[in-house]
Structures are given as structure tokens and as C-alpha cells.
Amino acid sequence: MKQVFRIPAYRRLLASYGLNELTWSVGTIALAVLVYRRTGSALGSSAFFLSAQFLPAFLSPLLVARLGVEAPRRTLPLLYALEALLFGLLAWMTSHFSLVPVLLVALVDGVVAITARALARAATVDVLRPRDLLHEGNAVINVVFSACFMGGPALGGLVVAAGGTAAALLADCALFAAIGLVLATASGLPGANPDELGEESTWRRVRAAVAHVRQDPPVRWLLILQGGGMIAFTISIPVEVVFAQHTLHAGAGGYGALLSGWGGGAVVGSAAYARWRRQPGRLLIASSGAALAVGFAIMASAHGIVVAVIGSAVGGLGNGVGSVAQRTMLQDYTSQRWMALVMGLNEAISQGMPGIGFVLGGGIASVADPRVAFAVAAAGSLAFAVAVWLLLTPVRLSRPPEPPWPPDPQRVPTGAEGHETLV
After folding, report:
1. 295 and which of 66, 119, 306, 314 could share a cystine (Cβ 3.0–4.6 Å)?
2. Residues of the chain with pLDDT > 90: what percent?
3. Distance between CA atoms of 346 and 326, rounded to whole angstroms?
């Protein structure tokens, strides 16, 4: 595990992942609070989440296709600098509020954010795969990501409470500028990554990526399962605040405790993945789905905030294992020439499918009860775990994972799950 820290480019990418998660948490809380306070409507808040997360998922693959062949050492700093400018604009809009312009800027930022994450993940694979350290590097990134996920909402709430939404958005502006500077001064980031698509148009490149996924069973099944899982896992998100404040009467503090419990569980899950990172991906992903099902079931039956937080922590544990296990397995089976485009689709699914989960969760809670929404999330998570176990079998994933390049003559792949035997 220590070997990954000896790679300068990886250290810079790792720092950018951590800072990016903090900015996302602070910015999301600040903008959600801003829109809700100015509109006084749950519809306004829903429109913000759809503009910032759901709609960008359909546009970002085009930008990834356009920038994916360019050198990450140039594109990533520029993308983060653009995000800094957009958050500076949003900070100015807090005193000149108009809902439609705020939603439009949030939409543009969402497209830029997804693109930057996809290209950063592709660059990380390019740095780690030749050294056969992809599993180790992803494990470390996941620990940092989960720690920031746990502390980010608390930090965002503190910044908003202490300085207001404008201060929080300006803090985001500064953090994104810092990320851009960290990557602009990095050594060893990959150069341009041309592929066989040559001078094809952006739209043709996206179509080629989709065709490649359809023809590649391991990649296809991993992305399909990811989409279904994301819907089930995010049903609870729009109802958690209602559940904490009105069902359990725990107030804003109870809602914060639910978020922190999930983040704490994710940190433990990240540590578990770091320990078992070389176990079959099928086992890790299916186990994570089962843990999420148990966590949601505990929350559905909870009659006090303590039990609900325990359920949230169990769900977070599953999330901490499953997200990185799925992404690593996808990267194992994706060739480097397709990496940016496939990571773009992966990020688009991660951002787009929750929109369906949000609508389902909100609809179920409005016509029934938050507990019913958690129960549906539990059933969906269990179905996901069973589907992973049945579909990600060695027979279906008959093609071996992409080997590290240049290959190590001392290692021979032995199966579809990515195990290796020393010879």
C-alpha cells in the first residue's frame, strides 16, 4: 500500500480527490439552503438537485468525449479553474438571487464537475495500472473520499451557519482554485491519450463508447448493475430530512447525525475494502448490497434516532465497500484507450440514476410514509445483491481483466475475477 505514495502524480490526484469532496459537500449544502430559503418550496429544492446532478449526467459524456484525448495535465487544472469561476458567480448571485439563472449555473457546474471526475479517474488508472497498483491506489482514494464525505456535511453546515451561503460558496471558489493549482504544478500526470477514433466528432465518439460497452459483457453488466443499484440506494436521500425531523422528531441535529453515521460507516467500509481489496469483485459488490439492505431495513423499523443512525452507519459501510469495488472492477476490465469514455459513462450513471431514486423516494414518502421508502430501498438493495451474485459469474465475465502495461512477466492472470498467481 505504501508504494502508491511514492508516485508524485498519484499524491497530487489524491489531494484533488479529497479537496473536491469537501467542495462538493460545502457547495451542495449552501446551494440547497439558498434555494429553499429563497423559494420556500420543496419543488425549488428538487429543481436544484435535478439541475446540479440529474441533467448534467446526460450532457457530461459529450464533454468527456471532447476532452478525453487531451492531456490531463492541461485539461484538469482548466476544468477546476472554471469551477472556481462558477462558484464565484454563484456567491455573487446570493445577493442578486433569481432561481432560473442559479439553476443554469448549477447545471453548467454539474457538467464540468462530472467531466473533471471522469478524467481524473482515467488519469489515475493511467498512473497506477502500469505499476499494478490500481487496487491499492483506489483503496487509499476511497478512504480519503469517505473521510471527507463524513466531515464534509458538518463543515458545510458550520460554514453556512457561521458565514452564510455567500461565504460557503466563496470557500468553494477558493478550494477549486487550490485543486487547479495542485494539479497544474504536478509532475508525472499523463499526456495526451489518442485512440483509434481519430478525428471523429464528439457525438460519434460517445456513440462508439456506447457500442463498445454493449459489445463487452463485463463492462456492460457492471454499468447496468450500477444503474439499478444507484436507483435503489438513493431512494432514501430525499426522505431522510423528513424522517429525522418529522417522523423521529430529532430536528436538524438528528438529520446531521444520520449523514454523519452514513459517512462514518463509509470510512469503516473503505478500511474494509483496503484490507480485502484483492478479494473477488463479485463477492465485495454483492456483500455491499446486502449491507445496504440491512441498513435501510434497520432505518425503516427505527423508532429513535440512535437506532436510525446505526442503520445509517451499516448502509454507509456497504456504500464504502461497494462503490470502490464496482469502479475498480470496471477499470480492471476496461482498456486504457477507452478509459476516459467509460469513466464518463460511469460518472454519468452515478449522477443520473439518483434522479430516479429521488423521485421514487419523494413520491413514496408523500403518498405513504418515510418508513415505506426505506423499506423499498432495502428491497431494492437486496435485489441488487442477488443480481450481482447471479450475473457477475466467472462464466459471464469470461474475458480476463485488462493486464497492467507493460505486463510483468512474473505474473500470469488466472481468472475473471482479477486474481493472479506468481510464477
Report:
1. 314
2. 35
3. 10
